[in-house]
Amino acid sequence: MPPIGAKQRAVGLVVEYNPFHNGHLYHLNQAKHETGADIVVAVMSSSFLQRGEPALLSKWARTKMALANGVDLVLELPYAFATQKAELFASGAVAILSEAKVDCLHFGSESGSIKDFHHLLSFMRENREPWDELVKSHMQQGQSYPKACALAFKSLDANTALSLDQPNNILGYHYVKAIADQGSAIVPYTTKRLSADYHDTTLPSSSIASATSIRQSLANEPDGSHLIKHVMPESALQELMTYQTDFNQLHTWELYYPFLQYRVLSSSTSELASIYECEEGLEFRIQETISRSSTFIEWMTAMKTKRYTWTRLQRLSTHLLTNTTKVEMNSLHQSSLPYIRPLGMTEAGQQYLKYLKKHSSVTILSRFAATDHPLAKTELKASRSYIAPLPTSQRMAQIDKDFSTIPIRM
Amino acid sequence: MPPIGAKQRAVGLVVEYNPFHNGHLYHLNQAKHETGADIVVAVMSSSFLQRGEPALLSKWARTKMALANGVDLVLELPYAFATQKAELFASGAVAILSEAKVDCLHFGSESGSIKDFHHLLSFMRENREPWDELVKSHMQQGQSYPKACALAFKSLDANTALSLDQPNNILGYHYVKAIADQGSAIVPYTTKRLSADYHDTTLPSSSIASATSIRQSLANEPDGSHLIKHVMPESALQELMTYQTDFNQLHTWELYYPFLQYRVLSSSTSELASIYECEEGLEFRIQETISRSSTFIEWMTAMKTKRYTWTRLQRLSTHLLTNTTKVEMNSLHQSSLPYIRPLGMTEAGQQYLKYLKKHSSVTILSRFAATDHPLAKTELKASRSYIAPLPTSQRMAQIDKDFSTIPIRM
């Protein structure tokens, strides 16, 4: 035990836990071991995720999964950062972890070598302008942003060891960059991810599976807990099954489609054009395609072009659903972090939070009722959109949870 | 038979047919008889009604009911006029009937004497200013608009035979006034309504019932066709039952409540304040009360004050659901009628329409695909909001009907 009031060594993780599985557990333990931390602080996406999807389970259920499996303190990654491409996503997460006074940040990557990340950062400090030019030119030729980045690196420096067309390398690079840009004292660590491919859609026989493959199994077979029990900790599986029973379903895009279609068809094109990430006349394409698509996947397929990645379009769908405008989002990104918000904590997390309350420069916020900051307003709007398709009694039980509930203690 | 190309004598009716019943049939026959008309032209509210409710059945189903029971030509009363208090509602209906070249307009009223309406009109020409002052002052004392009107008349002229706190007298007065204001050649007729009370909620044993009591019976007992078969023509009852089977339900406010709640909770207060009829800070009350109300009726009860009639609040709910703004609505009311739109016609109605096509000064519009007038855009938005809560296959079948369907022929 450290002396009372002294700060324990803390490692920060950036997570979605959608849902929590053995790979997450492995990473968590490895992070603690490699950094010598006493405390694990996870900054976790709230209701909607980086790839522009509703989280399968509420942030409260995912917080319980995290606390039952070794995380000491779960902090909310607000909607305004959770639903962004890597750069903004990472800068929000790092800003929160800095305010949470973690000593280090540990992330999984395809590379596994922190030196490669530092090297790339130096390279970019020197070659930013030509690199930007190349990215722009590749995008003008119709490439997606990630692909354009990768091509730009190839043109400028064949010796860059870090491949940026792999999603966790991109995120990792932006964590390291955000730490440097924000002048943070956080020390970054990385190890190679166990799961070979983030995009795996079939379940392996081993105990480590991608979250994508777990979601896919649940989508194909809603009663398929027997299919995934070897890849999830018992407590997390239990939480998942309870949620599915209580709410009658998990949150998938299809559940939201009638609401999204209603929203789009009852909006004018100029209202659609005011939504964040609705660029280049997409509002006309949105309205025309959605009126003839009977499911979300049908709509996305109709919307898809080489110009826009699936993820980009899903993020746009998320902002349409939550009615998040350009003006609103840009003003949130321009203001400094107003608060950090614990969603849950263990006994040890609670002690750590006591220390934070004395030393953090921002508010530690437990309920939205206690603030009227626009960041909280946008979050409340997102969480109320998140519960829109639930049956009445469950919807009503959740509707003011963000507004009035205090963090979970476990 | 009249000579080909000659105009037949036509009587105009202003209707909702929600649903079509024996009282409507009686009125229709009486109108034809009293005016000596060959042709009946009904201008019918589209998807949402004057009291701020979704119509029980689609405009297409209600058009079929009308055509099967003696109406020759059904014209759409657009959303922009159908969901308004008496003055605007009547001015829209009269403008359309004028363009439809009807010779007379026949309406039911509590009074039953057309002389009383003319007398009131003259009285108002002379006393408008003091009357306006009195209405304003009564409203400032917390009276509703209809009540304030009635009180103003009492103060100014105890001899006014026409009681303006009865809904069909108010409508009738505004028909007569609109005819005069618009310099229309239409001759107004009225007879006393058979059904004593517009607001009756229990079914009588006789063959004439109010639409309210029919809707109430259906709400209490969805399979209650045996309860209402003595008060509706066989064909209309059949249409109602078929609709209920095909669409799984009739359209009631409760069906829309999850969508309305979602809309309100994902809007900012300034967005709510931009909605038509959202006045005097109601946006805060709307958002606060809807987050704790699990049904539409619960919400309306929470919203209700002496200041606002139930109908006024229901109309506001309609505009919230359809996302109709003040700017949008006011600009529609300021522009002149761009088209009249037939929803359906009999053989005789078709002949009449041929005459109209030659002599009307506005477009005869059959599909919204053929126009980009804002009036059609608002209508399309309303009809797409109207079908939002239907199950997917029925929703998809209806979604573009307004856009591409031509009028029904029967």
TrEMBL record, chains A, B:
Residues bound to ATP: 14-27, 108, 168, 193
Enzyme Commission number, as recorded: 6.3.4.-
Family annotation (InterPro entries): Rossmann-like_a/b/a_fold, tRNA(Met)_cyd_acetate_ligase
Main location: cytoplasm
SUPFAM superfamilies documented for this protein: Nucleotidylyl transferase
Record carries keyword ATP-binding: yes
Top EC class for this record: ligase
Keywords: ATP-binding, Cytoplasm, Ligase, Nucleotide-binding, RNA-binding, tRNA processing, tRNA-binding
Keyword set includes Disulfide bond: no
Pfam families recorded: HIGH_NTase1
Annotated catalysed reactions: cytidine(34) in elongator tRNA(Met) + acetate + ATP = N(4)-acetylcytidine(34) in elongator tRNA(Met) + AMP + diphosphate
Subcellular location, record wording: Cytoplasm
Family recorded in the similarity comment: Belongs to the TmcAL family.
Function: Catalyzes the formation of N(4)-acetylcytidine (ac(4)C) at the wobble position of elongator tRNA(Met), using acetate and ATP as substrates. First activates an acetate ion to form acetyladenylate (Ac-AMP) and then transfers the acetyl group to tRNA to form ac(4)C34.
Protein name: tRNA(Met) cytidine acetate ligase
The organism of origin for this protein: Alkalicoccobacillus murimartini
